[in-house]
Queue: 3 jobs
Job 1
Amino acid sequence: MKKITRTLLILEKDTIALKKMQEMLTASGYKIFAASEILQLSNLTDNNVMELALINVEFFSSISSSEILGKFLQRRNLPVVFIYPADNPGEIEKTRDIASYGYLMKNAAEIVLLSAITNAINLHSLHIKTSSQLDEIEASNEELQATMEELEAINDELINTQKNLRESEGKYRRLHESVMDAVIIIDNKGIIIEVNKAFQDLTGFSEEELLKMRYYDITPGKWKALENNIYKQQLLTIGYTEIYEKEFILKTGKTIPVEMRAYIYKDEDGNKAGVWAIVRDISERRKAAEARDRSEKIITSLFNATPIGINLLVDRIIQKTNNATCSITGYAENEIVGQPIRMMYPNEEEYINNGHDLYGQMNAEGLGIKVIHVRKKDGTIIDVLASIAPVDKDNPAAGVCATIMDITEQKKAVEALDRSEKI
């Protein structure tokens, strides 16, 4: 039963390899648009919607073809996985200026091919979703910062006018009503004596209803102990509180998360008359945080599900690893994390030389890639395709993301084929 109905583009000069990939992917339920020449892309219309392109890096051998393919991918916002020849992984360098969602060795096994495609599609979807969420969070944080700065300025002004409260009542009222966030004032007995329009809108109660209530009538019981401690430790000692989070009960009976800051309210003689507070609805921020948590869980799941070994290195010390790395090397996660990457090299010379090559290429081009030897836990030496890229190019201290893919069997197959051709 076919459960995948996605359309892929394959651009491969080798018609035999092209046909093989087309047959494997068609059998797995994909719709394929196969091409062995760039000119064939002109047959595609805007109605031909595709989710991923598999392109051989050999098409980027000339500036003209690179420009044509770059514009084609950008116009369609199409994620790409590059296919490179097993005997010449250096061909990947031709694509260094084009963002990709992975590299795939030519004539890779079916399971590797399907995993690379699935990971690329999932990562592209996650990238789009996360970018949108980050933009929303950033905008929300900027708005919150601006509002808090405005409220702090208003608060300073209100504190300075408390000694002449009666004379400045008109000015206070204008400020009180113009604040976008909710404001509530209670007396020493906890009775609500004043609210602004924003607080009424927040809770759903009218001003008349709220002025007949006590503060704790709209505060869930689980928050009372916390606020009593804040009252004693902050309000009574320094006259105001730090920003803290709590909930209010709405007229509907539901609760709403808020953050607030409270201040001592004094009468014209300087005596404590009650407390006033600035209240901000943080429902959307909570939702954004939950969405970010879900995204992080998805990324962690992909990190552990991918068949390619992924590691976070800081100063060549392994900070984080995934299941595939453990499977490839034979080490358990607790045997790898915290250890220098030297443990995976056969000898000191290869550790130094490969580090020099990979980090040198990464610093020059943004990506370091090389076929290296790795020593497994049982002492077996295997061939892997290793790549490294900075976590944050503007902050080297953040470390690098390093991937390894076991290509031992593929390399043996290529060598066997070479030997048979020589015979």
Note: Residues 264 and 275 are 5 Å apart (CA to CA).
Job 2
Amino acid sequence: MLSRRRLEESLIYTFLLLIPFGIKKVEAIFVYSWGSKPIFLHMIDIAILALFVMWCMRRGWNDVPHSLTTKALLLFGGITIISLGFAFHRGLGFYTLLHLLSGIFLYFYFSSHSFLKQEMAFRGILVGVVLQTIVGLLQFKAQKSIGISYLGEILFGPFVRGTANFYFGAEKLVRVPGTFLHTNVLGAFLLMGSLLILYFLLRSKKISSVVGWSLLYYGTNLLLLLTFSRSSITTVSICTLIYCVVSYKTYRLKIFRALVVWFFVFLTLWGMFGNVLKARFENSFNELSYKHRVIYNEIGVQVVIQHPLLGVGIGNFTDYAFREKLYQARQLSISYLYQPIHNLYLLIAAETGVLGLLAFLAFLVLLFKSRMREVFASERVLVLFCVVGGFLVLGVADHYFWDLEQGITMFWLMLGLVGHKEN
């Protein structure tokens, strides 16, 4: 019979494996001003609930430190709950709030876990990275979904509405999402995977380990470039450079391994899609997606000015913007263009007010400050700082860390691992 500790370890690994797989079932549908939103029960929700039960059974709240970081996070959670009172569609707001609170729980769970090892979590995450790399490369070759909807794969293809794609000349290229809801979320997951693989690659001593980690590093970064996600590619490049520079004294020549792998990744991709990548970056500011992001941010600023303290209620930005005709006033008249602000911080301010944003930023500052001294002494802390730093940069141009299940889970898990102090 499994001991409680072994059972909990098994649940942790199961949870980590489920992160990239959007396995879900529609449980209800919310109808609001301009359309409807399906309410899903995800497999990852069940895994989080199981972890919560185990946490309660061992009274895990006793391990949570009474620090300023904890108080700032509780304050942020309290403000988001209060903001729900200002929401027009409280059902939708409550659904979003539940996901946020599950994320906050993950932070407390992983930051205060008594027997968790960070490398144990890293390895669990990387199992999912390997599987996503295989799935993503197969999808790119097919240029459409490959029939694994039971693992959370969405239906996509060159002629499927809502598919992330772009034109190179007369050719349409599909940007593959793996088993995520969008290619950009896959990009964030691969950012995490790339840096964690680099951590193990630089620490490897046996030739077999070096070869194995190098191959995985090659495949993961090849898929990253094939997502054509400009924000993810740029952020991974910067975070990798920072990680290598800071850890140079420790690894020195071993860093050459990573540079060789990156060289072969670019050599492979440039031979096939060099002109595509070049065009993708050169046309960044001329694409409709960029122009729409600017418009969403303008709407966000307007909403913050109108509701500065506690916002329009968590999960209610798009509903509010439609009802107040903020989209229509900017010639956005098609329903799929009614999207959230593509900026994590501005979206938090719009939905929970300036007070919510300040509490969130205070939590981040206190968390990073509490571990800052260990960045140069612990490779684990350094790589976690790079991952979370990368997430925070990606948050400047997107919203999935706030309102998409997989994005929320990744974000708060990594924050929890940053806060975790191993015995």
Note: The first strand starts at residue 24 and ends at 32.
Job 3
Amino acid sequence: MKIKYANKKADGTYDLIHNAGYYYMARVTYRDEKRKTRRKYFNTKKEANEFVERLNSDKARGSALSQTLSEQELNDAARIIEVCKTNNWNPFTVLDYYRARVDKDITGNDLSEVVEYICEVRAKDARSAKHLKQFQATARDFVSYVHKDSLAEKLTVDVITTKHVYDYLEDEAQNNGNGWSNATKNLRRAHLCTMFEQLIMHEKANHNPVSFKNGRGIKKYDKDSRTVEYMDVKMIQQCMNIISCMTPRTAAIYVMVFWCGLRIAEASRMSWDWISLEQGKLKVPQEISKVNQKRVVDIPDNAIEWLRILRSEVGQLNLVKREKSLADMTKKEIIAWKDETTAEISKMQKNARRLLKTHNLQMPKNALRHSYGTFHLALYKNIGQTATNMGNSPEIIRNHYDGECMDKNAPARFFSIRPA
């Protein structure tokens, strides 16, 4: 087994691994069960490392079996494996299932009770208050939906099948009779998959009907195709001139979104300590990154001019002050700080839109970051670099921004917008 990561260049960017027109951060080369060489590509190092850990774990478990089982038990195991191959089942999953049933009979657990239990467990280690609220709402909504369609007074967790989950996600009565979009289905599918994984880990359930393995379970839904909306260069100039005069801190945050590709949530939690105007670079720490991965972004010349002027007017850049450095903050403190910032972001956005409306200007939702993606890709024609700067996968960058800008002069004008 061999793992290869994208090489980091001297300027902080990455020399991404290319395969079939796509760019990736890591590649794992390994041999499958039939000793054939396989290669798997990943968008993050974390995904690659987790895949390697799973492979090593399966290998170690297989070795442990041969050392601890008797000859008769090994023969029985071989027959089980042959049945698994015929039915395309994972043998380790089957063995774990029967071992759990022998060690502890956990069938008959009431669905409502175990879901409430796992909701309480998740409350202790949730990534954010918003994520916890979404998880708990989905779990409880699923229980209500299954109970509504069941004639039994009591439902046990072991009777829940893939069909129950599929019917829940595909029901056209959801969302006030409009049905859910694929993005919403994927979000709820992910929460339900996590719920069943947690139930299995806490010995409250035997199986996960959501996880897609060996042709069973529910696949992720294809993302809904949509046209991104970006702003006209002239309008951007007008908006930034107004906002920089009235609310300098909001303007500094928008500069990082417009011309550095940061998400509004990331830019709103940035600190001047992570921005070097002399070197023309800024660092997005993994604690505030949506993808939980640090990245370094080049600051364009026009953005440096904006930030140099605004720095003299803006003392504290982030919307909510931190009393400690990120390294000294606990996980709970970081989550609480990020949750508090989320509320302030909403207020900032509303105030900015209200201000622009008085000047007959509009700033569509997500148009700031979409403007960067559209114009940066059109100007440099480097999907990998645009993906790295924005903290997205090359596939998303290609689907969203490739060919969106039809004005060949607009990208250069966009990166030439300077303070009035």
Note: Strands lie at 2-5, 7-8, 14-15, 17-19, 22-24, 26-31, 37-42, 275-276, 281-284, 295-298.
